[in-house]
Amino acid sequence: MSDIPYDQPVSDTPASFAKDQLKAFIERIERLEEEKKAIADDIKDVFAEAKGNGFDAKALREILKIRKQDADQRAEHEAIVDLYMQALGMLS
pTM for this one? Predict the structure, then answer.
């Protein structure tokens, strides 16, 4: 037999479940978006603090980008950049 209670119409039960599930997903995403904004604000504050101590925020962002790369990927990228700079006469 069915697990649907006899006092509810058959068509209401799945719709109600889907509605509740959808609402739960939306609320979870909203909470995560709030956390993401808080973390982004914290990161912004750290960059401002570093800048206040004389560090260049643009250079810090570049270092963070480089640190995320795989060592082989980074070496390949650096070799290509060096090659292009030599071709343009930018390296001696």
Answer: 0.65
